[in-house]
Each structure stands twice: as structure tokens, then as C-alpha cells.
Amino acid sequence: MQHLERIFIAQKIETGKEILIEGPPLEALCFQGGRVGSIVTLTDPEGNDFRGRVTLLSEEEASIFIFETFPLPTESSLEIVLLQALPEKERMELIIQKATELGVSAILPFQSERSISLKEREAKQKKAHRWQHIAIKAVQQSRRAKVPYVGKCRPFQEVLEDCREDGLRILLCEKEGENLKGILKQSLTQKIYVMVGPEGGFTDREVKLAKEKGFIPVKLGQRILRTETAAISMVGILQYVLGDLG
Length: 246
Prior knowledge:
This protein is of the alpha/beta class. It is built from 8 helices and 12 strands. It has 2 domains: 7-69, CATH 2.40.240.20; 79-242, SPOUT methyltransferase, trefoil knot domain (Alpha/beta knot), CATH 3.40.1280. 30% of the residues lie in helices and 24% in strands. Strands 6, 7, 8, 9, 10, 11 and 12 form a 7-stranded parallel β-sheet that branches. Helix 2 packs parallel to helix 4 and helix 2 packs parallel to helix 8. The protein is globular. The two termini are 29 Å apart.
């Protein structure tokens, strides 16, 4: 799983001055859709974040005027990987946008037994090619320094195999599950995998497979939430309890 790096500047950055960038920082700027007049977030070697305006851009270099510094980092120390069952209509775009604003590190769409397939969804309206672009736009709007990776839609079992690194694994279930507050109180990890199912929830087989990979079924309250509401709410709760919200 690839993470898209922030615009990291290996030199001292000062407000009120211009800096020239080239190489990997320039590539990151172009990936984020940078152009003359764009506002971007940059990070110095000490982890401090700055805001700057692109004043010059060519294939070889870019000039950025630094006009603001943040008192605290714009990126959370909590790494959240959202595994999201593919929903219908515009819901995936909403999930990507809001989860990005809330600070997720990666979004991995998947097809479960009860979710729509990408082929069926694309037949109605082709949007999957825009997913990474939506994340980039959300980063610009929220002043984040790092663009989360948005993967291609893959089978349920395939995305489970991406959860190889250590971390807390949470599976949102409609019918039953452990108490979320209790699990988070005991958690010392800074990496969390959250798997959100489709409308109708996961099948018993999928729950069994996820448990075998270390996922803990959790019930998010007594009400039935839409998949986009569950995903966005869960990311917000995690950032509030273990991350940088609040």
C-alpha cells in the first residue's frame, strides 16, 4: 500500500520569504495540482507546517512565497486506514472527501457480498477515476500536508491482506459487537484499521474471515447508520479519542 508523501522541504523555511523547490518536492506539488497562484502546505525537516503561494512554476522548479506557519502540525499522529465497502450513487465521493478532511491516511474501497460491484456502479455513472482527485481537493480545502492514498476497488478478501502491519483492527457491525469505548480505552496503538460494510451489513462469512485477521466486531450505537454516516462518524470518533481533534 502506497502513501503519497507531503511536500517535504529539506531546508529551513521562514515566513515572509520565497523558497525554490525541485525534484521530489516539485513532483509532489504537481501531483497535488499545484499551479501559479495555488495555496499549498509544506513541511520542514523539524515537522513544522507552513502555508505558501506558488509564484512561479516550470518543469524544472517552482517558487513559493511563505506567508503563514501553523503552531501545531496539520497531520495527526494517528494513522487511520479506512476499508470501505463500495456504496451506490455519490456516497463514495462523500466518504473520501470527509474522511480526508478528518485525517485518514488511506482509503481502500472493496466489494463485499452485499455491496454493488464496481462494474454495476460504473455502468450507471463512471466516477472511480476521480477518487484520488477528490482526496487531493479535500486536502487543499482542509490545509492538510499529506494526501491520503485512495486504492482501486478490490475484493473483500484482497483488502484484508493489506492489513499486515501491527495496529488495532475494528469491524463495524450492525447486529452485535464489543463496546467501542472500552476497546479505545485499552488501545495504545497509533495505527487503526477500520472496516465499514455496505447497506445491509456484512455476511456471517465475512465477519468470520475478518475475525481470523484480527478484526474486532464493534457496534456503533443502537441506531442503524448509512454506510457513509458510519464511516465518517467512526473516523471522527477515533481522531477525537486518540488523535488530534478536540
